Amino acid sequence: MVSLVRAELRKLLGLPTAWIGLVLGTLTAPVIVLLNAPYTRRAIAAGTLTDTTDLGLRDLGIGLIGPMILGVIVVSSEYTSTGPDAPGARQLTTTLTAVPSRRRLLAAKTTALILVVAAQAAVTAAATLTLTQVLHGEHAPTPAPARVAAAILYWTLTALLAYAITLITRNGIVPLTLLIINSSVVSVSYLLTKVTDLAAYLPDIAGAQMFIRSADVPVEIAPLTAGLVMTAWVVALLAVGAVLFHRRDV
Amino acid sequence: MITIDRVSKTKSRTRILYDVSFEARPGRVTGFLGPNGAGKTSTLRILLGLDRPQSGTALICGRPYRKLDRPLTTVGALLDGSGAHRARTARAHLRWVAASNGLPDRRADEVLEVVGLTSDARKRAGQFSLGMSRRLGLATALLGDPEVLVLDEPVNGLDPAGMRWIREFLKDSAAEGRTVLLSSHLMGELAEIADDVIVIDKGRVVIQGGLADVTGGHRTLEDAFLALTAAEEGGSW
């Protein structure tokens, strides 16, 4: 199993797109903290920003594009055509002749993805929170380790969510577009919370409450419950994706 | 040893294989011959555990492919294209495949040398010509030094020198005691290297046996093949 995970790590980190995801995801949150620093200082000075417990942590909600790209391409790279000479040929054929057990292959892929994203999230969290301390030291309370761990978990679960959806769609473009738009341009999930309280239990909305306290949501969910709600989403979608992957012809 | 026993397959409600049965034995080159769309690739994909048959079994050394542990050390397979992601270099591709079966990194360079791609090791697979892609696919098949080779249309896209090279390579492999199964729609190619021949048409095996038996009373394998596959439709393929 160790050799399978090592092979999957090599495969993932050998893709140029993976490095786009790693760099973008790791830099976005710290850069936003930097860019927002003057505004944040003025808001604290003017007294409009009184609750500073989420400073830094809130910025970790951005930069999710990194784990999303990583989660999607772990699967979509298997389905990309290898070239115009053989339009139907895909890397997946090589993968499954090398590792014919679908169950073991998915276990290795999942483990490799978790390792990479958790490491990325840890580095990003450390950079973002340190920068917040340096810029707004006297106002930004040092966040509790549990909240930082929850933010890392949120990133990892987001990557797994993207991964599970791509296992179902077998194509990276649709899930990546939808996920990125939803997390950056127009948050459909957030808009839905204005329509129905149930939308508070969508994975991205619920999951963020694991580590962000003052979220603008209709239903406040305790951090532990929030984690369980998001995990349930991920497990359910992964189960569907795994069953389909097992049953389909390549 | 490859044993295919009464394999049937239906795809999108169309029956594409009807009770296909044959064997490929060690020490021999077995040619799997048929027109395009006859069911050659479908049979090989089932043999390699990529697709599932509706009924029947396909065994390699007595076991279904999906049950093989570190399968690359038993079977080397070449299907369509190089099997490498376009953005990966030839060496990086071979190294991850090697790692997945617990093989050392140096195997990547060794097989690149065997197929004559050493100077292209750092090139991305997406920049490879058709012939180079086939060589990279073959290099992947050879990583685990397998006793069984399963090759789907291996000469497609190769230049004459490449064709001659692969012919010699497969003959040598069989002479070393390996089981070699290759599909082709090129009769001339198979007639030169195959010891045994299986002819498939419209999802059914129409004849199998030693090259001489299959050629039978016909002047060449090509004549025999045309007579066998054209019986129904006047050779319209």
Describe the 3D structure.
The complex is a heterodimer of chains A (250) and B (237). With 250 residues, chain A is mainly α. Chain A has helices spanning 2-13, 16-46, 65-79, 91-98, 102-136, 145-169, 173-185, 188-195, 203-208, 223-247. Chain A is elongated, with a radius of gyration of 19 Å. Chain A starts with a helix and ends with a helix. The model of chain A has no long low-confidence stretch (mean pLDDT 88). Chain B is an alpha/beta fold. Chain B folds into two domains: 1-74 and 148-237, P-loop containing nucleotide triphosphate hydrolases (Rossmann fold); 82-145, no CATH class. In chain B, 33% of the residues lie in helices and 26% in strands. Chain B has a six-stranded mixed sheet, sandwiched between helices. The mean pLDDT of chain B is 90. Classes of the chains: A mainly alpha (250), B alpha/beta (237). The A-B interface holds A 3-4, 6-8, 10-11, 14-17, 77, 80, 82-83, 85-86, 88-89, 91, 93-101, 249-250 and B 11, 45, 48-52, 65-68, 71-72, 75, 77, 79-88, 92-93, 95-97, 99-102, 125-126, 128, 130, 133, 140, 157.
Blueprint (SSEs and pairs):
The complex is a heterodimer of chains A (about 250) and B (about 240).
Chain A: H1 2-13, H2 16-46, H3 65-79, H4 91-98, H5 102-136, H6 145-169, H7 173-185, H8 188-195, H9 203-208, H10 223-247
Helix pairs in contact in A: 1-5, 2-3, 2-5, 3-5, 3-6, 3-7, 5-6, 6-7, 6-10
Chain B: E1 2-11, E2 14-24, E3 29-33, H1 40-47, E4 55-60, E5 63-64, E6 75-78, H2 90-100, H3 106-114, H4 130-142, E7 148-152, H5 160-175, E8 179-184, H6 187-193, E9 196-201, E10 204-210, H7 211-215, H8 221-229
Parallel strand pairs in B: 3-8, 3-9, 6-7, 7-8
Antiparallel strand pairs in B: 1-2, 1-4, 4-5, 9-10
Helix pairs in contact in B: 2-3, 3-4
Organism (chain A): Micromonospora parastrephiae
Protein name (chain A): ABC transporter permease
Keywords (chain A): Membrane, Transmembrane, Transmembrane helix
